[in-house]
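Throughout this chapter, every protein is written as a compact record of paired, labelled lines. An example of such a record is reproduced below:
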Amino acid sequence: MFDMGRSYGYPSQTFRVVLMNTCKLIAPAVFVFGLWMVPRSAFADVYFYKDSQGVLTFTNVPNHGGFRRVIRDNYAPGTGSPIVNGSYEELIRAASGRHNVDADLIRAVIKAESDFRSNARSHKGAMGLMQLMPETARLHNVADAYDPSENVEAGVRHLKILLERFQGDLQLSLAAYNAGSGAVERHGGIPPFAETKDYIRRVLRFYDSYRGSGLEASQQFRQ
């Protein structure tokens, strides 16, 4: 251990600066090494924040907007192999071509549903990239809902069915994807559920972002 009372040949103030800079360099390396020692089952998204004094804080539960994600948890035992986001492009484009659904819309739904995490599972039991509910997975004969290929194929096929059912009305189709087509029909339109309304806004916002067309689509939606 360093003895802060000694300068080890440096002028005292210079030594303090050298020591502080050394600690700043070592701390991230120690943190990363520690991650390798943690069992994979214990992983979660990791965020860091650097304050005005240069102090680094790492956490898996950020409590303000200054934190930035440095490690994404793309692994969960028994839920299929993780694939980097870029590898989904081929699946998205293929499904887009087969079902004639805009690839940017598919990306937007995946972003809103799972943030491109193939191992995602909601508290309601929705699974995988496009968050297939068990009954939806069965409807489309999905053997493994956490398999990106099966999940995207079934999710896009289901979205296409909804688009046809609601005559191309994107907002109603998204509402049905989120709350079920029965809920849309019972309410004669978008159900008065805060979750569903927020879901539509998020998908449209992502869709606009992927298409690079500003806020045109999201501005069409009114509460």
About this structure: Strands lie at 46-50, 56-59, 68-71. The mean pLDDT is 77.
